[in-house]
Design goal:
alpha+beta, Helix Hairpins, D-amino Acid Aminotransferase, Chain A, domain 1, OB fold (Dihydrolipoamide Acetyltransferase, E2P), 6 domains, five-stranded mixed sheet, five-stranded antiparallel sheet, about 20% strand
Amino acid sequence: MTSSENDHARLVRLRAEIAAHDERYYRRARPEISDFDYDRLKRELADLEALYPEVAAGEASPTRSVGDDRSEGFSRVKHRQAMTTLDNTYDEVELREFCARLARLFGREDLAYSVEPKIDGASISLTYEHGRLTRAVTRGDGEEGDDVTANVRTIANLPATLRPVVPLVAPADDLFAAVAAVEPFPEYIEIRGEVFLRFDEFARINAAEQDAGGESYANPRNLAAGTLKLLDPALVATRRLEIVLYGLGACEPAAPVATQAAWHARLAAWGLPTLEHRRDVVGVEAVLAAIRALDAVRGGLGYATDGAVVKLDDFALQARAGYRGEGQSARKLSPRWACAYKFAPEQAETRLRAVTIQVGRTGVLTPVAELEPVQIAGTTVARATLHNADEIARKDIRIGDFVTVEKAGEIIPAVVAVNLARRAPECAPYVFPAVCPVCTTPAVRIEGEVAIRCPNTDCPAQLTTRLDYVAGRAVLDLENLGGVVAEALVRSGEVRDVFDLFSLEAVKLGELNLGTAEAPRILGFKNATRIVEAIARARGHDLGRWLLALQIRDVGAATAQDIAAVHGTLEAVAGSEILPRLARIPSLEDEVRTTNPKARANKGQSDGERVEREMRHATLKAKLEGEKAWRASLIELSRIDFVTAAHVIGFFDSERGRRAVRRLAELGIAPKAARLATAEGRGPLAGKTLVLTGTLPSLSREEAKQLIEAAGGKVSGSVSAKTDYVVAGEEAGSKLEKARELGVTVIDAAALRALLG
């Protein structure tokens, strides 16, 4: 293969690899590589596309688009002003060039800049109307994002109303004059910022997740982003998210200030949380000094920062500098007047002593680096993640190598590179085990997946971790059964699956040896009694918890409750007609695409073939629209994705699934849903159309909408003669007046709750 062919192949692979990382980062909030490594891949791709423009032209590329965090279960909202993406650099030379370009553009070196810490969180856009918070939307694809208002309202440091600003010239002793001098709030303003978690809260939540049998998050950014996308605001409220605000979007009338410095002062005056350690400077040398000062103090901050953002201070000059990508899609815009300087992650070099393999509850074999202890970011690191077999091969990591270790996201240590110059001759390529290190079953790799798995569901390591998971508070809440107790139960042969737990007796269980034959440690009757009592209580747990206990792939807590709600019983889930119908929607979408007469592949057909294809396309399109309408009629269905539906079907079609249903029946356990879904056309508001206006006490707009839809009703954005009720809160506007004109029944939040029952 020629050099050019190698480059072309590498370009294609890079596009696919970056797209996969975008999916993990933006949609799943579970990235597998550091920002530094991701930026390196993107830079390599950009260089190849510049070298071979004929290959790059006309094809979608991650270098010409930005990530998309939109997900199922949330309504989409279009930003009035696009949320742009910043150009990144790790190089002072490139940062100097950024400032030099602006100096050349405006013919002066003494440009004023705002240097702001770059908080490593999840981007958010807040809308305040007449000083009241009305909406919170994720970045999405830059043009539109997910409406997460209900979740953002739970953030303690975010005020729901802005604080009035009184000019200093107002007479302090004249109350009426002071009130008259209060500056009016903008009618509409988008304020941009970042939702984040402090390190201590991140540690608390991760500890709770592990206690409950869940998987820990890699860093605070992932956890903050994942929390914003939870479908239960009550659960969001238990995780102490914080927010910081710094950006300005659309504003009507025009922005009340003219510079970044004045904008931050206005945010503070309104009572909004603003950035610490922000500096106003003049000239490139002062910019670099401010960045170095931030780098010196950020290690002592209680939250993650991964760089500094440099912005031209003057809004008028920002407008003149403009954006890259103007005239194209808004999702591709990046400001020419701002740049992100990212700090390279703290790293250290040490020797790789060994690679151990951990076996998870789903059988995934995860490689872990055993290191000579080394200090990184103030802590001693002796183990680090190697991610998977592909990463080991790509980086050519060998036992005995001197490797570079960094704290990915400032939390989880990871091996990122090998020092080839220090490689000893005896360092041989690492061979990933072909068998499970615990049960010696041949390992398998499913096509299209990175993970290598042990397929033996009776593997002791899997059994132990599955019991650990089932014992968690969020699942069956089996007090004191996890950890060493689970390991001892598997080792003794007493328990081979969750159903065996129900045969345990306190007397015999109390004799369980948690230690070794040489150093026995007996569980004891008192501890055994508590475990047996917890197991007895588990018989009465609802269907959602039991679906979690069955450990079906991709079924988490929220999804389990939704599946339970639309089925009611375990037997209904096992014989579901709903899930197969849901799982078929993607194939129906594919058929609609392939039968489209306008598709390039269908050009050049005869008239008869074209007519036949048009008829089939119309039929399939109508069927698809019907299926989507059916899915939308149940809120719970819209939150169950197609892949998860397929996994649930596959589980209950398998011998393991059939055995689970059989064993539960034998044990007399018949779990039922904690709540049942209500489709449109059923429920107390069946067939009714409601309009929401104003601010409702103790109920957000999104919460009210979800309650109405769950009760079978429909929420409309405008009032007409067909509207049944207008739900009016404080400061209701023109919709209330329209309702009175048309004679539509107007109710308050209390009356709405009464209608909902």
